[in-house]
């Protein structure tokens, strides 16, 4: 069923009645994205939170030199949105793009507010995932200030174990804050070390 993964994810934090499940599901809008298709572009207002049912989305910014900076990935079972834009309803800075073909479930800001009113326990669920996201961002910021590229890559592998072999190397390099060339050299050195041990 299209909603199995999202309901399992929610069930880890809150318990719903059959009626509450039916109401929640009625608010979701399924959408298919092809590889490289955008869910959101810089300058647009983010109107939805997206839950990934299959595939992977990536959130990134582009600086004044045209360089991409990957902030996060959303593999199966994860939510993604431009939180600043979603909450403020102002134009955002994020691009959200499909890394490969995706099936997502969208929950609009308007429907999320309705959901909070009709099923208040969902406020707890979204508070928990927002807090988890905030903790992850803070940890990542501290990692970027204090860890080596190698250590940042190890943390990436722990955070996104299902994506290590599926993502383009340039996206992983961008996420850990190094150039693709440096990343290739680093991975080559890791393989050499592994072969020697």
Automatic annotation (TrEMBL):
InterPro entries: cNMP-bd_dom, cNMP-bd_dom_sf, RmlC-like_jellyroll. Residues 31-109 form the Cyclic nucleotide-binding domain. This is Crp/Fnr family transcriptional regulator.
């Amino acid at each position: 069923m299209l909603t199995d993964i999202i309901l399992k994810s929610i069930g880890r934090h809150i318990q719903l009645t059959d009626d509450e499940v039916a109401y929640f599901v009625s608010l979701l809008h399924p959408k298919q994205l092809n590889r490289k298709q955008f869910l959101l572009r810089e300058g647009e207002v983010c109107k939805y939170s997206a839950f990934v049912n299959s595939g992977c989305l990536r959130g990134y910014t582009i600086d004044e030199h045209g360089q991409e900076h990957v902030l996060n990935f959303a593999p199966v079972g994860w939510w993604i949105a431009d939180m600043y834009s979603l909450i403020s309803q102002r134009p955002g800075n994020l691009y959200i793009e499909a890394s490969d073909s995706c099936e997502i479930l969208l929950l609009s800001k308007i429907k999320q507010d309705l959901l909070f009113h009709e099923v208040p326990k969902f406020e707890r669920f979204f508070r928990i995932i927002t807090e988890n996201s905030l903790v992850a961002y803070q940890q990542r910021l501290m990692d970027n200030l204090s860890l080596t590229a190698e250590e940042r890559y190890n943390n990436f592998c722990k955070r996104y174990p299902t994506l290590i072999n599926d993502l383009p190397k340039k996206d992983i390099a961008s996420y850990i804050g190094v150039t693709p060339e440096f990343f290739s050299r680093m991975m080559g050195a890791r393989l050499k070390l592994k072969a020697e041990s």
